[in-house]
Amino acid sequence: MSMRVNRQGREFRRSGIKYDWKMKIGTYLPDQCCSVISSILFMPLPSEYCINTTTARCMAWFSAAISSGVPLVFVNIQSELIPSTEETHFWKRETATCRQKINNATQIIHGIRLWFLPGLAEISIVLIPRPGKVRFGMEIKRTEEGFVCVYSVITGSSADRAGMKELYEESSANRFLLVISRLQGKSIMPTSACSAGLVHCCDQSDIKDILTSCYRPI
User: Fold this and answer.
1) Contacts (Cβ under 8 Å, ≥6 apart) of 40
2) pLDDT value of residue 133
3) Contact between 6 and 22 (Cβ < 8 Å)
4) Of 45 and 10, which is predicted with more confidence?
5) Within 10 A of 62 (CB to CB), how many other CB atoms are there?
6) Which helix (H) or strand (E) is 141 found in, with range?
């Protein structure tokens, strides 16, 4: 809301106020060491000479993720200068071949970074191994867009006792996927789409190995 009064005067005084950062972080962040926001960087394909084309492909990925049931909220989109790497050199060579350019060293590569938030909420879940069991009692899969989600939870399992079955059923009832955003404080969200068209994301077999290792004797 913006208010106007028919009076001219000096600027309002501003002062600092105390703020309990520790309490706010502990209350409003599910993981105090991680932010809730995520991003993914899209590299231009060799055939993409315009940043609008890369942007369109970025939004196609975002729309496809939402259509598949991944609950996401769009935050921001921005162009980003890509540092010179082996991959960007490959992109420059491919682009130079297509355009028949010889001096490709002066080409500037811009990617598109998309920022997004979980569409519903990010909830911290603690899985405690159950004595005599070798699994947490849940199955995971990866979507085409690179998100890892839960697609089944066994009744009475460690995952069920942690509340995952209730979350899974609630998500399914609302036609959403139950996405795992972090594991052991580390993000497992897709992070980039390279110039070869591949989406870089976590290998679900690695995630299964980490979950299985929790049951191995130390």
Assistant:
1) 58, 61, 113, 114, 116, 189, 190, 191, 192, 193
2) 67
3) no
4) 45
5) 18
6) strand 138-142
Would the pTM of this model clear 0.90, i.e. be above it? Answer: no
Residue carrying the six token digits 């594991």: 183
Q: Which residues contact 160 (CB under 8 A, 6 or more apart)?
A: 137, 153, 154
pLDDT at 88: 52
Q: Are 46 and 95 in contact (CB under 8 A)?
A: yes
Residue 180 CB coordination number (10 Å): 19
- What is the structure's pLDDT at 8? 66
Buried-exposed string 108-121: b where 16+ CB fall within 10 A, e elsewhere: ebebbebebbbebe
Instruction: Say yes or no to pLDDT of 117 above 80.
Output: yes
* β-strand pairing of 186-187 with 192-193: unpaired
Query: Which own/partner contact pairs does 85-92 have at CB distance under 8 Å and 24+ positions apart?
Result: 87/43, 87/194, 87/195, 88/43, 88/195, 90/195, 91/43, 91/44, 91/46, 91/195
- For the record, the structure tokens of 168 come out as 């899974």
Residue 165: Cβ-neighbour burial (10 angstroms; 0-12, 13-18, 19+): buried
Measured distance CA(46)–CA(39) in Å, rounded: 22
> Would you state the structure tokens that stand for residue 75, as one six-digit string?
């935050």
